[in-house]
């Protein structure tokens, strides 16, 4: 990858005109920035440094790897938040607490900037697609130097150049974008695993959700581009990939040559070197029988389906615009359990959606008990301006909290019981890190996404080992490596 980057950069002529668009234009600015960072580093007697701070989901984590890759290609060394010359916050806006968290962090960054007045601060990502958030930054955080959104993330190199070559704050926001520019540098966080975007945006407009407004309409990448990327990752030593999209089950439907998600997944399993494939997220309304059968026949596909329920009440599901009923969800989950008995089913649940009563929450609890979720992420409903649910009658905070606590107890009990069913089994674990509490242990992840701690040394990180699951501790296991 590094050699390829150098080859491309060497081929760019920065004495000529700026290329009109696409990756060539960005490489042009990367090369320009290299000259700038080299001169500046010489002046300072040290290398310029940068840090990427990420909020939110796997998609944002993947985007941040691209941001970091571009910064490194421009000549910055990666450093921590406090000691960087260029600091970028990649934001999330799915719930209000993510917004508040960001403002706290940017507030703190003003102190870092006082210590290092040459520091540049950039903010990008989902939150920047909302006018109110950008207005607030403009008004109350004048020391932010660069603001851009989700549709033009690939122009980052160009914006870094602008920041260093103009006296004004740079704000670059696009309302939409249909270009997919992928061939830019990226700095992968883990050598052995990687996310792979298969699609962008979302067309579902669940009535509580801001994502379709900030990420735009659904766009699938061409399968050939995705598969080539996976092949490249495999030749770089990646063993586990996660295919990423807001609703992977609708992948490929709008391509000129339509292809289903199951077909894409099947093709990915044929790539040598890739030993495990995950995907995220499945919308229950679109999960196909083909997909279930594809998982069943392919041991490389992880035994884990994340299937957001959101609510178990038909009335609330309708108001949420989810397009399935409690009964349909239960049938689907039951069918998955039957066809893939060793697979974990995990979910997302929202409590406190407008109009939700204790009765509605009882329906949700009923689904949790009947499906027996292996894990559930539970969220208190957060009103997002501009979504249909924001205009509905809201539930008082204390009612939301009470119902949330009631649900959480059931979710935790259920997950614990589910985890116990694997005790005594031997499974393949991908070792990911040294155990945080005891460095004679390493921590791995099973195909079903559960965590297991085993005695072992750091040399195992990034490899698959067979482990016996000895002791269940609720959400994780202690086990040992089978020789
Ligand atoms: N309030 C609370 N939770 C939300 N989610 C999405 N929008 C909201 C909101 N406005 C949750 C959903 C989704 C997960 C990623 O975030 O459960 O599946
Ligand atoms: Fe939001 Fe619904 Fe799209 Fe998921 S499927 S991103 S919850 S609108």
Question: What report would you give on this structure?
Answer:
This protein is an alpha/beta fold. The chain folds into 4 domains: 171 residues, Cobalamin-binding domain (Rossmann fold, 3-Layer(aba) Sandwich); 101 residues, Transcription Regulator spoIIAA, CATH 3.30.750.210; 119 residues, Transcription Regulator spoIIAA (2-Layer Sandwich), CATH 3.30.750; 56 residues, Beta Barrel (OB fold (Dihydrolipoamide Acetyltransferase, E2P)), CATH 2.40.50.140. Helices cover 38% and strands 20% of the residues. A 6-stranded parallel beta sheet has the order 2-1-3-4-5-6, sandwiched between helices. The protein has a 5-stranded mixed β-barrel with strand order 15-16-17-19-18. The chain has a 3-stranded parallel beta sheet with strand order 7-10-11, sandwiched between helices. It is globular and about 65 Å long. The structure holds 5'-deoxyadenosine (5AD) and iron/sulfur cluster.
- Write down the oligomeric state: single chain
For the record, what is the CATH homologous superfamily label of the largest domain? Cobalamin-binding domain
| Rg over CA atoms | 23 Å
The first-level CATH class of the largest domain is given as: Alpha Beta
Number of strands: 19
From the N-terminal CA to the C-terminal CA, the straight-line distance is 35 Å
